[in-house]
Each structure stands twice: as C-alpha cells, then as structure tokens.
Specification:
Layout lengths: L11 H50 L4 E2 L9 E2 L2 E2 L10 E2 L4 E7 L13 E8 L18 E7 L4 E6 L1
Antiparallel strand pairs: 1-3, 2-4, 5-6, 6-7, 7-8
Length: about 160
C-alpha cells in the first residue's frame, strides 16, 4: 500500500478556517458600508437644504411670488404654484431622489408685498438615511433630519442638522 506524504495542498480544516475568517471580515465590512450609504443619503438631504435656502432667498430678491409648500404629484418638485395657490408655475426646486420634505409651518414669504416679513420652516430627510429612533428633532419621521429656517423679521437664514 502506498502512503501519501509531502503532498502540497490544504486540508479541509485549513480551508474551513480561512472561509470562516473571510466570512467574519465580510460581515464587518458590510456593516461599515451600510453606514457609508446612510451618511451619503444624509448628505443629499443637507445639500438640498442648503440649495433650497439659496433658491428661496434668490426668489425673494427677484420678487418671485411662490407658494413654497405646493408640491408636484411625485413630491420632489417644490413651488409649482404662485402665491395665490391657483396659478401654475415652473417648480422652483427639485429635491434629490429619496429626499423628502415635511413643512413645519406654511411658508408665507411674500415677495409681492415688501412690507410682509415672512417665515419658512421645513424638515428635509432622506427616506433611507440614518435612523433616529429617539427622533430628537421631533419631526416624527424617524430619520436624521435637516431643519431649514428663514425668518425675515429676525434676519435668520439657516439650516440645523439633527
């Protein structure tokens, strides 16, 4: 009978150990990648908040009369009607895919009447962004949110990340 010695190969046990190590490393990297995806989605909401504040400010300077809480049927286009709420117009801003908006108060910035100093308050968040089970922002959406605020009387134009 012939014995097999000095064969150059791996035993089944060695292969199983290597596969277990690779499995653990893959699981760790999958959780790490999910965090990166959530952070990228949150960044989209932050960017939309910054851009929305700029758009509203520019529309006010240009004397545009926009009802900012009027939205398109898909919920991604904002300001699709004039201040009167009936006259259609081209949307003033389109949100990034997946970014949602929740209005705190009805925006009443009035560019058609320069004596009116209005406010605009809204929450922006990504539907697949970072989860916020405590909901410290009190927005009621369970995600990390960005609050957009314009208060013309106080001279405030800011975004706050929760």
């Amino acid at each position: 009978m012939r014995t097999y010695r000095n064969q150059h190969g791996f035993t089944l046990l060695e292969l199983m150990i290597v596969m277990a190590i690779l499995g653990v490393l893959s699981a760790i990297s999958a959780f790490w990648m999910l965090d990166i995806f959530h952070a990228a989605r949150d960044t989209a909401a932050i960017t939309d908040a910054k851009n929305l504040l700029t758009i509203i400010h520019n529309n006010f300077l240009d004397n545009e009369s926009v009802q900012y809480d009027s939205m398109g049927p898909d919920g991604s286009r904002l300001g699709i009607t004039e201040e009167d709420g009936a006259t259609p117009r081209v949307s003033v801003y389109g949100l990034s895919p997946g970014v949602k908006i929740k209005f705190i108060t009805t925006p009443n910035i009035s560019s058609s009447n320069p004596d009116v100093l209005g406010t605009f308050n809204a929450w922006l968040y990504h539907s697949l962004g970072t989860k916020d089970p405590l909901d410290i922002s009190l927005a009621g959406v369970g995600r990390k949110v960005v609050q957009c605020t314009i208060d013309e009387a106080a001279g405030v134009q800011e975004y706050i990340i929760y």
